[in-house]
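Data availability (excerpt). The following record was deposited with the supplementary files.
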Amino acid sequence: MKKVTKLFGALLALVMVFTSVFALNANSVVAKAEDAVLYDSREEYKDFKYIIVNGDATVVGYADGTKTSLVIPAFMIDEEGKKYKVTKIGDFAFADNDRLVTVTFPYYLTTIGASAFAGDKKLETIIFAPNSLVTTIGEKAFLDCTALTNLGLEKSKGIVLPYNVKTIGESAFENCVSVKTVELTKSIRKLGAAAFRGCIGITSFEFAGSYSKIPNEFLSGAISLKEVSGISSNVQIIGTKAFKSCSSLKKVTLKSKVTKIYSRAFEGCTSLTSINIPSKVTSIGKYAFNNCVALDNIKLPATLTYLGASAFQACESLTSINVPSKITKLETHVFFGCKSLKNVTISGKLTSVGNGAFSSCSSIASIKLPSTLTSIAKNAFSNCTALTSITIPSKVKTIGDSAFAGDTALTKVSFSAALTSIGASAFSGCNALKAATIPSKVSKIGANAFTCSNLTTLTIKTTKLTTDNVANDAFEGTPVEITVRVPKAKLETYQQFLIYNNKGISKHSTFKSF
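Predicted structure:
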């Protein structure tokens, strides 16, 4: 009997558990169903689908998909005759419509939702009501509207934003390839990233409003853009790729509050001939002006503390450059390929010249390096084919691989007394160089360091060289009858391993002691 009672109790408890779980699930299903009803409680008025939010109507679609022209009414009227002001076009409301050509907005409209008209390939004209109340154009609102040419009041040409617009969302007009001109409005307070990216038809862009940043990729790829004007005086930052590949842009005037130009901001602006760098700029990012092949003059401000890698790479028309005193390092390829660069002024506290910093600057005949310099990286001055002489400052300890390789006009090198290492191919191909003196502290020489076909006199002051720290072929390609001057105490040792241990000195050479 006790066993039966226990079994009955257990079954009762199990039933209660299942009942509770079912009740919870049922409540959850009801809650979800209620949410779905609220979300899908769309009404219709003249084929417009709408929902009521905070007492106003949001248009969320249109039942008749055959219309090419729509005039969105100012009010939605329900079955009981109650009016609701239309204040918003909902997210995705008319997205991917393959028929719409013209849409007219009502007066009370304040918000155009995210992707509201995205992908409407035939949409040509958006007409705002006079004195429109629109304040927000959502992200991707007109993305890929490739036929859009006019947006504004009824007779507007191009994009002319209504007076009250404050916010343009991210990618709002991206790839609107048929737009020719854009005029922002003074009320603008926020610009979205990539808002006009890929708008390849824009020729003129008139900024207006007050904002602190031109966003990342804002006009990137606007290849027909020739002029910009009205950039806000409050702008402090030019964003990453903001004007990248605006290949027709010729002139940009930045306002005085700009402090940072981010990476690739003007990269590929191949027609750009003039841009001012305001006096408060502290940072110019990587590739900021890369491949601005027409830019012939630039003045860097004294406030500059960072100049990114490849910042002016391939600026083929640039003739002069000043490196301000707060710059301590020239980054990789910062002036690489500036083949017209002749005048370089370096002031202040520079300690290192980075990889390829001046490589292929084929018009530099001379350059004065500052006394603060301690290292010269690989390829730093390679293929500077007009460079005739160089003085390595007294604190420089290392010269990187191929640092001066291919400098075919180089006739004189004055080495630093502090120098300890000369990299592989450091002076390879410097065939105008006839004499070189290796300082007393050098303890490492790389392969092909002095592959110089006219080097007839080599003076070695250091006593620290061994067969292990002088690489094979270090002097390969030097003249057969080269004269080598070495310290008296090292005459026999140096002669032995430099000739017979594959270091590149010919057995027909002449060794002299001092």
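Summary of structural features: Helices lie at 2-39, 491-500.
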